[in-house]
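Tokens for chain A. Residues wanted.
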């Protein structure tokens, strides 16, 4: 039995059906109250004046609760956290502040932002990559049905909503990709795989270890490099090791290419794992794994690695043997 958490993706997204009739009645009551004209006699606030004062009070509360520096207080509190022990570089104090430093990457399904988490009055800081999956009105993964095979959703209503791509279903899908990536990274990190440490998840935002330099320069993607023969051979060897680590957990990346591998100080790091595939539970799992190997081997072969060293068929057979 592989140590997966895929059955726990969507425990509590929908409301309790028994509470819906009461809420519906309450909403009707509110609508009737809102439709009733406000009295016009002297001394009674108009609706627009009440709204203005409410907004003013909320602004004052926001200002009073804002940190002395940065954009907001740390979002660590209330989020789902990464595996223990937390790395020593990670700032977990609730008195820390988060500051947005810019966009690292934009994509069809998610954008990645650079965030600094700083503990005021100390020298403690860390840089984080905040991956934010897009709102449900944006296009999600165009092949998501294939990736979702083998993942169970506890409520049939939720599965129908996702299959039908209703607004509720698209919300569930967006969060499911975030949960899937966070879970996979936690599993792989705990087993020593070279992936970014998953710091926290809240809704559709996953915060990850930033891989790059202290000045915010991100580590390059493998696709950006033109490695010399010795480095190419070393990177291929590292890649084979990473793929075997995934296979031992019964997993395949699902969309592997030179664009979702980073090279950070000569170390190959695998990123972008929302579509991770359970090779055993997913009927198409072996095909996803075979495609991963074929795609990435093609990149290495195109850069000059000897064919006998990067044989896609041989590597695929070895990985499937380990996965099963």
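Reply:
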């Amino acid at each position: 039995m592989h140590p997966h958490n895929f059955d726990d993706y969507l425990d509590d997204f929908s409301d309790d059906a028994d509470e819906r009739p009461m809420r519906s009645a309450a909403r009707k009551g509110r609508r009737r109250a809102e439709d009733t004209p406000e009295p016009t006699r002297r001394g009674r606030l108009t609706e627009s004046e009440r709204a203005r004062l409410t907004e003013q009070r909320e602004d004052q509360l926001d200002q009073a609760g804002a940190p002395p520096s940065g954009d907001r207080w740390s979002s660590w509190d209330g989020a789902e956290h990464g595996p223990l022990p937390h790395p020593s570089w990670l700032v977990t104090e609730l008195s820390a502040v988060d500051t947005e430093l810019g966009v690292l990457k934009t994509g069809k399904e998610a954008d990645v932002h650079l965030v600094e988490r700083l503990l005021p009055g100390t020298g403690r800081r860390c840089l984080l990559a905040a991956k934010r999956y897009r709102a449900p009105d944006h296009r999600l993964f165009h092949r998501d049905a294939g990736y979702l095979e083998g993942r169970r959703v506890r409520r049939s209503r939720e599965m129908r909503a996702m299959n039908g791509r209703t607004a509720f279903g698209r919300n569930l899908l967006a969060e499911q990709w975030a949960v899937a990536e966070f879970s996979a990274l936690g599993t792989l990190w705990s087993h020593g795989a070279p992936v970014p440490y998953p710091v926290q998840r809240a809704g559709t935002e996953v915060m990850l270890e930033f891989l790059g330099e202290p000045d915010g320069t991100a580590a390059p993607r493998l696709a950006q490099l033109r490695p010399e023969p010795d480095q190419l051979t070393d990177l291929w060897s590292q890649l084979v090791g990473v793929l075997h680590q995934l296979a031992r957990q019964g997993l395949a990346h699902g969309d592997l290419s030179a664009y979702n591998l980073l090279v950070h100080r000569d170390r190959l790091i695998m990123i972008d794992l929302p579509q991770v595939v359970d090779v055993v539970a997913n009927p198409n799992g072996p095909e996803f794994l075979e495609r991963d190997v074929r795609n990435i081997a093609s990149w290495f072969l195109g850069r000059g690695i000897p064919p006998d060293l990067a044989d896609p068929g041989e590597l695929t057979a070895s990985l499937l043997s380990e996965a099963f």
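The mean pLDDT is 80. The CA atoms of residues 3 and 298 lie 31 Å apart.
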